[in-house]
Amino acid sequence: MAIRDWPADERPREKLLQRGAAALADAELLAIFLRTGVKGKSAVDLARELLVEHGGLSALMAASQERFCRSHGLGDAKFVQLQAVVEMSRRYLAEELRQRPVFASAAATRQFLLAQLRQEVREVFAVLYLDNQHGLLLYEPLFYGTIDGAAVYPREIARRALELHAAALIVAHNHPSGVAEPSDADVRITKRIREALALLDIRLLDHCVVAGPEVISLAERGLV
């Protein structure tokens, strides 16, 4: 049955207008993005198949262009549209953090870090440089690779903070393995960064670890 023949309160678009986007399942949201199905399948049916094929919405959104376009019903145009949606989400969250102190909106900070780091297939170590009101000056990935395997230089973080006249920082990195628990290396590098910044009277507010849908705060665990 085509979606237009469904009861009005079950159609994804009408349901979103009546109850808000949060009321929709992943397949319904994806169906709105797809707009149309394929022969013999509604947009919702196609969306469900794509989510199973890719292993969920997160994996679909993180798929490479080649992988994405191999799926039936998708192509370059949809890939471009999806990447634009993802980037708009990132910029929206960044703007939220620029307009008010990061800890006045802890949820927005976590969502921003998830948007930036969750899909990375390699480990990325990034810094949020903050002004004296703890508003976001700049988000910048600095180092790539595992904490043990790649060089994370506290002096480089400190140098960049001085260039930007930052008063405080939040550092963050992802665990592509999906295991969010901070490692001993995470704790050690946090201590080194904090000590380097203290010499410059710059505060390290937190070190966040992103893994899958989780964001772990070392500050909340008393490790910063």
UniProtKB/TrEMBL annotation:
Signal peptide: none annotated. Keywords: Hydrolase, Metal-binding, Metalloprotease, Protease, Zinc. The keyword Hydrolase applies. Gene3D superfamilies: Cytidine Deaminase, domain 2. InterPro entries: MPN (IPR037518), RadC_JAB (IPR025657), RuvA_2-like (IPR010994), UPF0758 (IPR001405), UPF0758_CS (IPR020891), UPF0758_N (IPR046778). It comes from the Bacteria. CDD domains: MPN_DUF2466. The keyword Cell division does not apply. It holds the Pfam family UPF0758_N. SUPFAM superfamilies: JAB1/MPN domain, RuvA domain 2-like. Belongs to the UPF0758 family. This is DNA repair protein RadC. The lineage of its organism: Bacteria, Pseudomonadati, Pseudomonadota, Gammaproteobacteria, Cellvibrionales. The gene is radC.
